[in-house]
């Protein structure tokens, strides 16, 4: 085997020219979105007031395996892609493991994460449709920043509802979004009906992604020339994020490397779904086998402790319903949980794959995640996002198992972003004041109580 | 000419294996450091209590053109280098200019700047000498972060004196340094004699790089097993930073590109000296000609309004004296100046080259700098550091001149880093509350009054 460099970059000509639609190769397709009024699958016409046309087409298409990436988006990708596939030589040495560890690093752009991959796609189709602007929610702020950047580039208006606890913990994120011209509102807010309702019912709430989605959707459907865009969960987002996995696979293939184990953090599923896409495709088609692990926070454990059921995608229960692993749209994760990945549900596609046994899931505690983050930062140089550090934790644990067994496994994990705007959480960890919160069965039961009562389909 | 990609990366094998020592090709060598007591050139023995041995050798050697980069440092470089040379297609389009703009982007690492290039070198030689740790100062925090990272990697103790106004404006920088295990103290502080003296004379001072240097040097020379390291100004730093220019030139050469104009921001000179090194070498040897422009802030204009004279490198007047363009070690830039580059002097090497007419210098106002930063961020995606934005300002201005004249000039500038920890300053710009401060002649005269009175040499 050739000498593997620290970082493998593709040339511009080697960059993917089409996104891969994982659903095309699934025998059991993800269940369709349902109209909560009729309990019938959502039609393109019903989705059109919320999403722009091309994105509706992408959302509903579970047959077409490849979608060509428009030239404008490919040009934008060239500003910050290809992202490097890094061989973690220093981490391997620090762990004294025979495992070979690779990570796909998506943090080398101003949004600080992989979110930009779908932001530019969604903004592009909105622009093509002649819209004025888009609305969205953001949690940790990565998605909001990404969308602000994409909108600035294309000249679109951008309204962001930011989960209040992030808005307060991350004031500088707001300024980055403002620098890119976005309008940022802490959620829940008094600017929407659903926001006012949530504030009345839960005064003092620090918000959740579910609340913020409700507000952003309300503004989109009630404003002329606006549509709503979402940074995770949706099929279209996984489609755009497949660029991560396609690049990673092309880079590995250049050196004849086949991973044994693929690890990604999972909140709504955007990164994990993108990273695993082409590998899972091979697995679905029976061409190769990979062990695939989704890592979620113990404080918001949708795959490992949730129910596989139809649920609303938002707290306000105004969106269509998706069949997914969910904690219930009424579940609000503990405020002391800093590591992103706060969403109550999980992408329908990933939920179905998990349900069908194509991947595993595990959950990790916040302090263990930050211990991994610190160890990784000190040896690999990159200060990781808390979200990404969930995957680091499990990658390190698996590499340490290899040290015990002597197995030379090849591990690939997704390093979704950097933690430069998460220093409040790092400070808590540095000061020893960070706490873990693992919801009790009673707390989960409260969330499950919010699940809609739907006759079996 | 081949189609130029958005980003040119060198392969690992193409990365420079030696640093280039610009002084070797200078006919008029930079004047030697002087012992302020004897007014004689500092000897290696006299420098040994402050700097470690190999770095003293590098500091004093103005004959050897190349220094081999040790393998450990080359391995560390591979974690975040080569840095990309970016063709600013989007900026060119936004400016509607026939100019071809390239920038060497040094911000893709956790320190957020080029400072890591010298930090790892200085930490490496301290480790090789068997020292326990190093002390330093930091202004904007980039150098302190870089040194913390290098020390964490090598297992060295790291004590950082951080200019108080940056310490307060950038609380998160402190946490990044702590995450990498460093000890961070706001300067001036009560932990040193010189700090106590400065506090007594200037109560309420927001500090300066010069003060912080005094404190760090005092701690280094009075602690067993410690040496002082400095992120700019010194010859050794310019030597290490030559990696920037060497990579940039190698990347341009691959495509047969020759810049007409090279632009870099200048505080102490670390970035500019590194970026221009191989180009200036050709110019000194008469092999090629380039127009080279140093850009400094109007609020701290050492080249454009300073004196070429021997001066102390620090406010406390405990360091050796260097012959340089200086505003006087007693000059303290306005507290509202956010853009880094706050140092009162300029690298002796660059000062000599400027004095001999090998390069130009210009100064720019803070609000004009942030206007350029915002414009750049929106079209090129990268949120630039305020320091780097000085170079962006002049690059944009030169590209706009090309639009007037129709000239297809090739412009290369140094994009030294990212502004993720400078959002307080961006917020002031976004809010319209940012002010400019241009020192009056009287204010400059006050600084000049602190210059030592030395008989002509």
Describe the structure.
Two copies of one chain form a homodimer. Chain A is α/β, with parallel strands linked by helices and 457 residues long. Chain A has two domains: 9-14 and 81-112 and 240-448, Rossmann fold; 18-68 and 114-228, Rossmann fold (3-Layer(aba) Sandwich). Chain A is built from 18 helices and 15 strands. Chain A has helices spanning 44-47, 53-60, 71-80, 89-95, 116-128, 142-154, 164-169, 171-179, 193-201, 209-222, 235-254, 270-284, 302-305, 348-355, 366-380, 386-405, 423-431, 441-448; strands spanning 7-8, 18-20, 66-68, 85-87, 100-105, 133-138, 157-163, 183-187, 226-228, 261-265, 291-297, 307-312, 321-326, 360-364, 410-415. In chain A, the strands form four sheets. The first copy, chain A, has a seven-stranded mixed sheet, sandwiched between helices. In chain A, strands 8-7-6-9 form a four-stranded parallel sheet, sandwiched between helices. In chain A, strand 10 (261-265), helix 12 (270-284) and strand 11 form a beta-alpha-beta unit. In chain A, helix 11 (235-254) crosses helix 12 (270-284). The radius of gyration of chain A is 20 Å and the shape is globular. The termini of chain A are far apart. The model of chain A has no long low-confidence stretch (mean pLDDT 95). Chains A and B meet through helix 3, helix 6, helix 8, helix 15 and helix 17 of A and helix 3, helix 6, helix 8, helix 15 and helix 17 of B.
């Amino acid at each position: 085997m050739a000498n593997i460099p620290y970082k493998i970059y593709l040339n511009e000509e080697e960059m993917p020219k089409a996104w891969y639609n994982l659903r095309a190769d699934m025998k059991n397709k993800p269940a369709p979105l349902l109209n909560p009024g009729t309990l019938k699958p959502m039609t393109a016409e019903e989705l059109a007031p919320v999403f722009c046309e091309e994105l509706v087409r992408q959302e509903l298409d579970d047959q077409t395996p490849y979608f060509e990436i428009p030239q404008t988006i490919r040009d934008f990708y060239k500003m910050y892609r290809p992202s490097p596939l890094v061989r973690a030589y220093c981490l391997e040495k620090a762990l004294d493991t025979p495992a070979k560890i690779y990570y796909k690093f998506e943090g080398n752009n101003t949004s600080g994460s992989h979110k930009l991959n779908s932001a530019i796609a969604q903004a592009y189709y909105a622009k093509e449709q002649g819209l004025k602007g888009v609305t969205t929610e953001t949690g940790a702020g990565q998605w909001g920043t990404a969308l602000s950047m994409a909108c600035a580039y294309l000249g679109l208006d951008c309204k962001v509802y930011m989960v209040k606890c992030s808005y307060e913990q991350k004031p500088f994120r707001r300024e980055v979004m403002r620098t890119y011209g976005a309008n940022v509102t802490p959620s829940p807010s008094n600017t929407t009906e659903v926001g006012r309702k949530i504030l009345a019912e839960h005064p003092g709430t620090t918000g959740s992604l579910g609340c913020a989605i409700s507000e952003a959707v309300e503004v989109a459907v009630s404003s002329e020339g606006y549509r709503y865009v979402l940074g995770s969960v949706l099929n279209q987002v996984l489609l755009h994020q497949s660029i991560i996995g396609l690049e990673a696979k092309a880079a590995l293939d250049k050196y004849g490397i086949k991973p044994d184990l693929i690890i990604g953090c999972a909140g709504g599923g955007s990164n994990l779904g993108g990273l695993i896409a082409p590998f899972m495709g091979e697995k679905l088609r029976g061409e190769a086998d990979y062990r695939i692990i989704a890592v979620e926070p113990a404080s918001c454990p949708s795959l490992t402790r949730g129910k596989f059921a139809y649920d609303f995608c938002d707290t306000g229960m105004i969106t269509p319903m998706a069949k997914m692993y969910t904690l219930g749209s009424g579940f609000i994760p503990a405020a002391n949980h800093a590591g992103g990945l706060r969403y109550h549900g999980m992408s329908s596609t990933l939920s179905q794959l998990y349900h069908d046994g194509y991947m595993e899931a595990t959950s990790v505690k916040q302090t263990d995640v930050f211990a991994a983050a610190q160890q990784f930062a000190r040896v690999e140089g990159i200060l990781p996002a808390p979200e990404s550090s969930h995957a680091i934790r499990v990658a390190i644990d698996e590499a340490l198992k290899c040290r015990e067994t002597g197995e030379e496994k090849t591990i690939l994990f997704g390093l979704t972003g950097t933690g430069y705007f998460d220093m409040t959480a790092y400070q808590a960890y540095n000061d020893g004041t960070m706490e873990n919160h693992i919801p009790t069965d009673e707390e989960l039961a409260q969330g499950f109580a919010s699940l809609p009562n739907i006759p079996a389909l």
